[in-house]
Design brief:
The protein is α+β, with helices and mostly antiparallel strands. The chain has helices spanning about 10-20, 25-35, 50-55; strands spanning about 10, 40, 45. It contains three helices and three strands; from the N terminus they run βααββα.
């Protein structure tokens, strides 16, 4: 029988550290750029594999919006 591996949920802080960006940047990406994130109560949860796919598809690329995030200006 094949063993199924379940990816753990990551917190906002873990994603900040993983990507090396600030909290506000991630919150802006969620609201303005459809970053994959899930609200669980008051907390944001993430699957790092989905975040990686989103980044690879250009989701975090400033060139896709025509402007820079406020935090980087």
């Amino acid at each position: 029988m094949k063993e199924m591996v379940v990816e753990k949920w990551s917190t906002l802080k873990e994603v900040q550290e993983y990507l090396g960006v600030g909290r506000e940047t991630i919150l802006q990406w969620i609201s303005k750029r459809n970053m994959p994130a899930y609200k669980v109560g008051r907390l944001w949860k993430f699957k790092l594999s989905e975040v990686d796919d989103w980044i690879r598809s250009g989701g975090a690329d400033d060139r896709n919006t025509g402007k820079k995030d406020e935090e980087e200006q």
